[in-house]
Design brief:
This protein has 10 helices and 14 strands. About 35% of the residues lie in helices and about 15% in strands. The protein has one domain: Rossmann fold, CATH 3.40.50. It starts with a strand and ends with a helix. α1 packs across α7. About 50% of the residues are buried. By secondary structure, it is an alpha/beta fold.
């Protein structure tokens, strides 16, 4: 199968490349949607890794040229502008990359008959639900980032796959696990909000799930997160504990008390129920605590990974 990956230099993209090659991503494990047990099945994909350096998704001509040349069967579209606060001021850039960029990718995929999987976000919801969000709940983004990613969802043609995920962390790139470990190396008290709820999701588990959904050409919206939920305060305490530190150094704070306040509003509840996975007969991702332990061990064993 010929698979084109956008955002291939990012933390999710690099794990997608490993999963497509039959490798277990850093911090991953053999048990996954790709391979319930034993060795990974025969993987014979021809993969084209793209990112801003060789295919800007907001450049329609460049996208069409790359797609005509490679003629992919499946497109895993993870490329996006994910700097949530920056999107509040870089509004046109956010929509150019996240919405119009997805329009360009969807158009080019349709022209060559490729199946499109688009990676979206919990930020498409406003966070006011008293329960986890289901795939069929009505989006209502409050931030420019969330609105631009919802715009990308709406650019996907019928039959595409949309994967919404949340609180993404991995061995590559910047994320909360690496931030917390860096801060823990100091002596200051750490303060994190205790009124934002979500599901930490680890790219080592997410990437194989995305590869499965994309190569199976499963249509529709899927919420794909590691199982369980916590707050940022609870998550950082767990990170320190997994690294052998003192979780008591972490103190709770309310979002309203952040100084300075964050430019982009955050959903108070962004927990995603993985109902479509379950009803589709696919196993859930492991609990977030399990993914965290594996990632911290991988980072400790290999130093600062990419």
């Amino acid at each position: 199968m010929r698979v084109l990956v956008t955002g291939a230099d990012g933390q999710l993209g690099r794990d997608l490349l490993d999963a497509l090659a039959g490798r277990v991503p850093v911090g991953g494990r053999r048990c996954s949607l790709l391979a319930p047990e034993g060795p990974l099945p025969g993987v014979d994909h021809e993969v084209l890794a793209t990112d801003i350096g060789n295919m800007r998704v907001d450049d329609r001509d460049a996208v069409q040229s790359v797609f005509r040349s490679f003629e992919p069967d499946v497109v895993l579209h993870g490329g996006a502008l994910t700097a949530v606060d920056a999107c509040e001021t870089e509004i046109e850039l956010a929509y150019a990359v996240n919405a119009v960029g997805t329009r360009n990718v969807a158009e080019a995929a349709a022209a060559v008959g490729a199946h499109l999987l688009y990676v979206s976000t919990d930020y498409v919801f406003d966070g006011t639900s008293p329960r986890p969000y289901r795939e069929w709940d009505t989006p209502n983004p409050k931030s420019v980032y969330g609105a631009s990613k919802l715009g990308g969802e709406r650019e996907c043609l019928p039959g595409s796959t949309i994967v919404r995920t949340s609180w993404v962390c991995g061995a590559h790139g910047a994320n909360m696990v690496k931030t917390a470990l860096r801060l823990a190396a100091g002596t200051d008290t750490l303060r994190f909000v205790d009124d934002q709820h979500g599901s930490p999701t680890f790219t080592a588990d997410l990437a194989p799930a995305i590869v499965t959904l994309g190569t199976d050409r499963r249509p529709g919206i899927f919420h794909v997160t590691n199982s369980g939920a916590t707050t940022w305060y609870g998550f950082v305490r767990a990170i320190l504990e997994a690294a052998g530190g003192d979780p008591a150094r972490v103190r709770p704070i309310a979002t309203a008390d952040l100084d300075p306040p964050r430019p982009a509003p955050r959903p108070a509840n962004s927990v995603l129920e993985n109902m479509a996975l379950r009803l589709g007969g696919l196993p859930p991702l492991p609990g977030w605590q399990d993914g965290l332990v594996r990632l911290v061990a991988a980072l400790s064993g290999e130093g600062a990974v990419g």
